[in-house]
């Protein structure tokens, strides 16, 4: 579905653009996203290690891209749960790559696993599993009148 339009996956997300995230490769139900090292993304200026929050955002974006690549038709998505095990600090000065795979897609939920690394998947920085809600911007159910249901003012 995405094919040659892989760059559109992150180009509509201002935070991803501002931080320099790049879509490297996409395929059926998978995405590889890269974040070049930048001094303004460092969490500890004494070590030069990237901030954990930027790694989290990178993983979240890669997982979302994998979900989009798994969908039979475009719909909105939202992160429901994101669990990350940080295995070691990112190496200062090196880009971080995240490989994400949507390994199961149900009517309402997508399940994703991801790995952050510097190019060697056997020397990972972080491992992640997540779930995303599909159709996240569907119209909400009609609001109930609070007074009529024991929740009155």
UniProtKB/TrEMBL annotation:
SUPFAM superfamilies: Thioesterase/thiol ester dehydrase-isomerase (SSF54637). Keywords: Hydrolase. GO terms for cellular component: cytosol. Pfam families: 4HBT. InterPro entries: HotDog_dom_sf, PAAI_dom, Thioestr_dom. The keyword Transcription regulation does not apply. Residues 48-122 form the Thioesterase domain. GO terms for molecular function: 1,4-dihydroxy-2-naphthoyl-CoA thioesterase activity. This is PaaI family thioesterase.
């Amino acid at each position: 579905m995405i094919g040659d339009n892989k760059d559109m996956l992150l180009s509509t997300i201002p935070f991803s653009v501002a931080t320099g995230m790049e879509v490297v490769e996409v395929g059926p139900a998978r995405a590889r996203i890269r974040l070049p090292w930048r001094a303004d993304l460092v969490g500890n200026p004494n070590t030069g290690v990237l901030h954990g929050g930027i790694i989290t955002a990178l993983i979240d974006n890669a997982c979302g891209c994998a979900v989009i690549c798994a969908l039979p038709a475009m719909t909105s998505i939202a992160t429901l749960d994101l669990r990350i095990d940080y295995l070691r600090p990112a190496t200062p000065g090196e880009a971080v790559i995240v490989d994400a795979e949507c390994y199961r897609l149900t009517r309402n939920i997508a399940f994703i696993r991801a790995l952050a690394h510097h190019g060697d998947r056997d020397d990972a920085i972080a491992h992640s599993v997540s779930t995303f809600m599909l159709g996240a911007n569907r119209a909400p159910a009609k609001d109930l009148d609070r007074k009529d249901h024991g929740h009155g003012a």
